[in-house]
Design a protein that fits this description.
The protein has helices spanning 16-27, 55-67, 96-108, 129-139, and strands spanning 2-11, 33-38, 44-53, 71-76, 82-93, 112-116, 120-127, 144-149, 153-156. It is an alpha+beta fold. The radius of gyration is 19 Å and the shape is elongated. The two termini are 37 Å apart. Catalyzes the conversion of 2 pyruvate molecules into acetolactate in the first common step of the biosynthetic pathway of the branched-amino acids such as leucine, isoleucine, and valine. Its EC number is 2.2.1.6. Belongs to the acetolactate synthase small subunit family. Keywords: Amino-acid biosynthesis, Branched-chain amino acid biosynthesis, Transferase.
Length: 168
Amino acid sequence: MNKIVFSVFVDNTSGVLSRVAGLFSRRGFNIDSLTVSETERPVYSRMTIVSHGDDQVFDQIVKQLAKLEDVKEVKVLHPDSSVTRELILVKLKASQAERQGIIATSDIFRAKIVDVSSESLTVELTGNQTKIEAFLNLLGKEKILEMVRTGVTGLERGSKARGEMWDD
């Protein structure tokens, strides 16, 4: 099964998130991650949805999303023609003896220490999923006390802006 990232441009209206999520649920498609935010134009939002399946599933998702009234555009964000990022916050068990190693690992990945307590460190890291997975693997699961991830968000590469593609 392949992973795919959809960028869905929608009206910023009440219930649109429920309708999009409901479409996935009714069709038996899983949402691996979902981020939603208002765009540079407050009347619109952008949803970044990560799912998995085969090409037939992906084609079906695009067609079903395009049929929804609130959906203005559906794009697939391909790794070679888009920029995707994710944010993670990780609270790590860290004794005084362990701190320097965690800080060194964080520095290698350009992560930030955002909170320190007597027995833990909280680290913030932004990057693509490969970078985040590599960071987590290097830390080891036994040190992680708590963790939260934002999910993937992304845009197509290049200078063409969404607002230039069609008028209101």
